[in-house]
UniProtKB/TrEMBL annotation:
Residue ranges occupied by any Sirohaem synthase dimerisation domain in the UniProt entry: 150-185
Protein name according to UniProt: precorrin-2 dehydrogenase
Pathway: Porphyrin-containing compound metabolism; siroheme biosynthesis; sirohydrochlorin from precorrin-2: step 1/1
Species name: Shewanella phaeophyticola
UniProt-listed Enzyme Commission number(s): 1.3.1.76
Catalytic activity: precorrin-2 + NAD(+) = sirohydrochlorin + NADH + 2 H(+)
Length: 303
């Protein structure tokens, strides 16, 4: 993974955008949605950028950029038509330890801007490491149709309730169960029944444990699609040997990982409502199937 995805808190973030043409305007359209403090420098200004200035959203300097401008800045976007100027100022920024993005020139970028699906508090970022932005936009167009606009007010609602849930449910597992119940009932809607679904989610806080079984060395790409949401809800993963990276990538990252315990310990965790994945050799899986008839065996193409 060449580019590691990060979501940066933009409150007070100081951003310098050099250039004010069409390419710079596209960058500013995204940056202006954030809480960043934005300074745009360019001799000639596009009408859309001047509109942001008239609205008081940006600071604007109608002149050529100088080295002194790259001081006390957190991020720099270089989006001029002068490639050599972009490269020269990228070198200056890198020397000063300032993260820089040279538009359409990944070789001089300390960071890149992904293709973004914006639903308020829910943001999905897609990147192809700068090599296929057209394909990233294709994926974005698919996600735009999948994620309804109602998600923006829904997550504002969820944010307004988080403190209440934390005070009501002290245990982290209980809070996770509560939100699972709420989203299962509410789905991606935000309507006049959302508040009632929130209240109802507190009513039944018990949950049934679950045991998933996976024979070791099963190719991750052959697992059934229906298994994916189950793998993301696990509390603990039992395996005597390290999992391969492909399988591990499908699992909930903060699930506890440990060696396979005694059968009685597995039964106890099941009774406590824990959701488990046990990865083992075929003979061990056969033993577990016999002992736990309620277990789901994850096999290629079937549950």
């Amino acid at each position: 993974m060449q580019y590691f995805p990060l979501f940066v808190d933009t409150q007070g973030l100081r951003v310098l955008l050099v250039g004010a043409g069409e390419v710079a305007t596209r960058k500013l359209d995204l940056l202006a949605r954030t809480d960043a403090v934005i300074h745009v420098i360019a001799p000639d200004i596009a009408a859309d950028i001047d509109t942001y200035y008239q609205q008081g959203r940006i600071r604007l300097s109608r002149r050529a950029v100088t080295q002194d401008d790259i001081a006390d800045i957190d991020l720099v976007y270089l989006a001029t038509a002068n490639e050599q100027l972009n490269i020269d100022f990228a070198d200056i920024a890198n020397e000063r330890g300032i993260w820089v993005n040279v538009v359409d020139n990944p070789g001089y970028c300390r960071f890149i801007t992904p293709s973004i699906v914006d639903r308020g508090r829910l943001v999905v970022a897609i990147s192809t490491a700068g090599v296929a932005p057209v394909f990233a936009r294709t994926i974005r167009s698919r996600l735009e149709t999948m994620l309804p606009a109602s998600l923006a007010p829904l997550f504002d609602f969820v944010a307004s309730k988080r403190e209440d849930v934390q005070q009501t449910l002290a245990n982290g597992k209980d809070r996770r169960l509560f939100w699972e119940r709420f989203f299962y009932s509410n789905q991606d809607r935000f309507d006049n029944l959302t508040e009632q679904r929130y209240v109802d989610a507190f009513q039944e806080m018990t949950r049934q444990g679950e045991i998933l079984l996976l024979t070791e060395h099963t190719p991750a790409n052959l697992l059934p699609i229906a298994a994916m949401p189950l793998l993301q809800k696990l509390d603990v993963i039992f395996s005597d040997d390290p999992l391969n990276s492909e399988t591990n990538e499908l699992l909930r990252r903060d699930a506890n990982r440990t060696q396979i315990p005694k059968l009685s310990d597995i039964a106890h965790q099941y009774e406590q409502g824990n959701r488990m994945l046990i990865v083992a050799a075929p003979d061990k899986i056969a033993q577990l199937i016999a002992y736990f008839p309620m277990a789901k065996h994850l096999r290629p193409g079937a549950l």
